[in-house]
Amino acid sequence: MNVKVSIVGAGMTGSTTAHWLAEREIADIVLVDVIEGMPQGKALDLLEAMPVIGKDVTITGSNDYAATAGSDIIILTAGLARKPGMSRDDLLAANAAIVRDATEKTMRLSPDAIYVVLTNPLDAMAYLTMRVSGLPPERVVGQAGILDSARMRAFVALELGVSVENVHCYVLGGHGDEMVPLTRFSNVAGIPLVDVMAPDRLAAIVERTRKGGGEIVSLLKTGSAYYAPAIAVTQMVDAILKDKHLIVDASAYLQGEYGLRDLFFGVPVQLGRKGVEKVIEYMLSEEERAAFKKSAQGVAENNLKLQL
Ligand code: APR
Per-residue pLDDT for 201 more than 90? Predict the structure, then answer.
């Protein structure tokens, strides 16, 4: 294949992303990790699965960044995952060092790549990637909104007993407990959620969505979610490589949109071959604006801690 996607961090999220991506047969895949033999072993195992599903994808694992040279997309998912009782922000210092190193090393080898960041705390890590790489804002995007929206969609579908395909939810803001599920815009087959659900049930779903990552961390005890984050990033990569102009919620660099500046924040973006083609702006109510502001404060505080 003529298209290459490199995944830095071959842990749970990285290797699951490789799995979903390989099934789509849209790019050759490189897995890189610091653990000796691990990315090689996972890549070989996945490669050996391809004949069964009839997909011609080259999957390589390495401990050397040289394998990533000439990538179209670099996915950053290296770093520590949460343990019970930890917030995403608790990971900041350790993961910043890892993301900085991975960005510097991959940039030199793939100067034309688009970066999709997953490492937490997500909005700060995407900001760090852009600043360290010196890339223009459209070439760096963070995965969070598709995941948070998918969690809310799953909870609504369960509650109402309808197909997940009929449920459309929009979760914006920073990827933390102050994220902003936009209930006014979320709907079931076009009918606003506020018209089909009792207020207390909707409030419970909003709360569960905000804490969705933590719910899984407390169940797993040894790590954080990976199936849903991995399929979310796969959808983003698919949209970029196919130049779909797909509008999804993602963390993008804001330059005045929503009254916010110089931070990565969850907003609807249009994704295509150039990366973030456009940030879409909703007309927010006073209440929604206040929730955005609160969430943005937390993100800005993390960015300051990066001391860039
Ligand atoms: N370079 C490459 N890989 C690294 C580096 C580094 N400098 N440092 C750590 N890693 C690797 C680890 O060896 C591990 O295999 O990153 C991988 C992380 O995998 P997991 O521990 O399984 O964590 P995962 O659940 O995949 O989450 C990774 O993504 O969603 C976020 O919050 C999550 O920040 C976390 C990250």
Answer: yes
